[in-house]
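Revision sheet: structure tokens.
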Amino acid sequence: MKTIKTKAWLQYEAGLRYKQRVGLYETVRRNERFYRGNQWYGAEGAELPKPVFNIIRRIVDYLVCSISPGSVSLSFTDENLPFVRDRDTAALIRRATELLSKHASYRWEQNKMDFKVYSLLHDAALSGDGVFYCWWDPSAGSGQEYTGDIVTGLVDNTNLFVADVNRADIQSQDYIILSGRESVATLREQARRYGVPQEEIAKIVPDTKAKNQSGDLGEHELLADDESERKATCIVKFWREEGFVVFEKSTEGVVVRRQRTNMTLYPVAYMNWYPTKNSFHGTSPITGLIPNQKFINRAFAMVMKHMTDTAFSKVVYDKSRIPEWSNEVGQAIAVLGGTNVADAVSVVGVGKLQEGYLELIELAVAMTKELMGATETALGDGEAINTSAILALQEAARIPLDQVRRSLCRCIEDLANIWVDMMC
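Predicted:
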């Protein structure tokens, strides 16, 4: 029986086709592959040794650590609110903003946001985008009689879909969709809890659409014998009706849950590493480094191949006059005939590497690091002759990263506004 697809699912498939056209899935896989050191993927350079000099990981780790704020403090003020003449009302507003600031500090620690901000930057460095997603977890412990709390997590940019892919403002979108993979048993239980008829629940079945997940290993899942333990793709769509956010969770042909909320903001905050003109997605710094990384690896591989083939001298001899050659120390070698022995044997010397080749490789490594701001001084590899000068150079090396840092600050500000929107 053919499955009748939901409207949200058709919009999700349109988003999939866009990401495939712009090559997002393959770009993210290749970037992640190079970052973790799998840089000889496939049959490329099959005849050569396969060394890996992973400057990409060195540069990316430096960039992420340089931008990561370490410790963040959120505070709310009433500066942008309309002027209030009544002193009691003004005092009440000030107490409310103080309470929000204290609650934000608690929530930041509760959700371990310092680590999640680092992970957000890491995702953005690999894929071009970092995405925060907030949701209400009714089972989360709150330390009080009632359970439930706001949870903040990360979403891969391959699982975020928007109505207008040429506009980078997420709150102005007509709708946004988040996709994911959950076990069939979990989805069926959720559908049963929210009153979905049994004949509809039976339509929730496992699928093989994991190839649309991020990274090489995203498409490899546990192949359980029990159908309910396998996974199916589910999506959560958000849109606005009369100014308030409505969300709908569904599979390909079954709406699991639909509910209107009191929120006015979509619960998603995101950042680009490098903005891309007329595109919702940003650009990863790894994408432009891959050609350099491949050249460096291949150049070193050819040096290794050359040294392996020509590093040691070889003996060439006339087999008609010397039946068998021996390399044993002190071993006598028989020669037929009485002519000059030098005419029967000679030694071929070692091969000579072209002058300047190793210097070219070193220059490629140094220039790649320098153009990305990961100089020896910035990385702490230089000799500490003048500490003040080194600190000044390290600080100057971070200036080109100010654009990414501002994007991160805006993302954190958007996240704080979402928390307030969910609480108030």
